[in-house]
């Protein structure tokens, strides 16, 4: 027997097939990890399978290893690079980073040194030659990033600083008891990861909605101290010292983040706001009601 061109057996098989969701990952490892965690929760809680769609142009060894470690029911698909061979000879989509990027790296390095605080810095080589995405979205730097740091910085700070080229497991670092502050670009994934681990922030927004997030965190919520727009080494050092040990604004930020961490953890518990929101979305996708 057939109905609407679909045999009864085929329809029954389709009905038994678990719901499947495709997730298009914005380039960058920091975007992949949260979506993978969402896929895991959907699979464990609602039996939803998922495909994570990434871009071949930003693939890396760490990304491939991460995707291979995902549990059954979560697959990945890599989109090939876009063929640009048919563009006119005078066409250009290249965006070059200015020398400002290297200057800011120097100011950040000297600011960390000046702060007198111990630090872990994941250093990436700036895109001073070539397209922005040549380095910005990749987990692996194209050149030795330590070569772009101020002369003598590596040697002077080897007793207090740990320099990690290209990439580090951010959530594991944030979860460590020794982490007392997070200098963050204010991407919302990183902000949420910092709050759920109770780590106060120094806000250094780069572009897009990150500036709005920085305002919200520093002036609204009170969970961060923002680096001034001029980003001089003295300003960076002062912001880091304030969040780490300051008795005024820094103390207020640390207390606020502790309160937000408690709320975040409660939201992830059974019956919490975050889990309830996830259940609501999943029920819309699956057509089932969650008790």
From TrEMBL:
One Gene Ontology term of the molecular function aspect: UDP-glycosyltransferase activity
Keyword Zinc (UniProt): no
Transmembrane segments: none
Alphabetized SUPFAM superfamilies for the sequence: UDP-Glycosyltransferase/glycogen phosphorylase (SSF53756)
Keywords: Glycosyltransferase, Transferase
Pfam families: UDPGT
Protein name as it appears in the record: Hydroquinone glucosyltransferase
UniProt family annotation: Belongs to the UDP-glycosyltransferase family.
Listed InterPro entries: UDP_glucos_trans
């Amino acid at each position: 027997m057939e109905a609407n061109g679909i045999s009864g057996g085929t329809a029954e098989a389709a009905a038994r097939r678990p719901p499947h969701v495709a997730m298009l990952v914005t380039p960058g490892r920091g975007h992949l990890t949260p979506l993978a965690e969402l896929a895991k929760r959907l699979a464990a809680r609602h039996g939803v399978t998922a495909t994570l769609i990434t871009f071949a142009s930003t693939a890396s060894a760490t990304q491939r290893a991460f995707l291979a470690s995902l549990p059954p029911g979560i697959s990945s698909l890599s989109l090939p690079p876009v063929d640009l061979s048919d563009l006119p000879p005078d066409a250009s989509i290249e965006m070059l980073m200015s020398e400002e990027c290297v200057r800011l790296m120097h100011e950040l390095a000297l600011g960390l040194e000046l702060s007198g605080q111990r630090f872990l810095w994941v250093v990436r080589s700036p895109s001073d030659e070539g397209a922005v995405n040549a380095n910005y979205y990749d987990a692996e730097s194209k050149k030795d990033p330590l070569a772009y740091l101020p002369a003598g910085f590596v040697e002077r700070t080897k007793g207090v600083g740990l320099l990690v080229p290209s990439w580090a497991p951010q959530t594991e670092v944030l979860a460590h008891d020794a982490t007392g502050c997070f200098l963050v670009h204010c991407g919302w994934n990183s902000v949420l990861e910092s709050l759920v681990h109770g780590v106060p922030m120094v806000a250094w927004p780069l572009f897009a909605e990150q500036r709005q997030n920085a305002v919200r965190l520093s002036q609204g919520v009170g969970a961060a101290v923002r680096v001034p727009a001029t980003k001089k080494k003295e300003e960076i050092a002062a912001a880091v010292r304030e969040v780490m040990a300051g008795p005024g604004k820094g103390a207020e930020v640390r207390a606020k983040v502790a309160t937000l961490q408690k709320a975040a953890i409660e939201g992830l518990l059974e019956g919490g706001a975050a889990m309830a929101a996830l259940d609501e979305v999943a029920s819309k996708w699956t057509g089932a009601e969650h008790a």
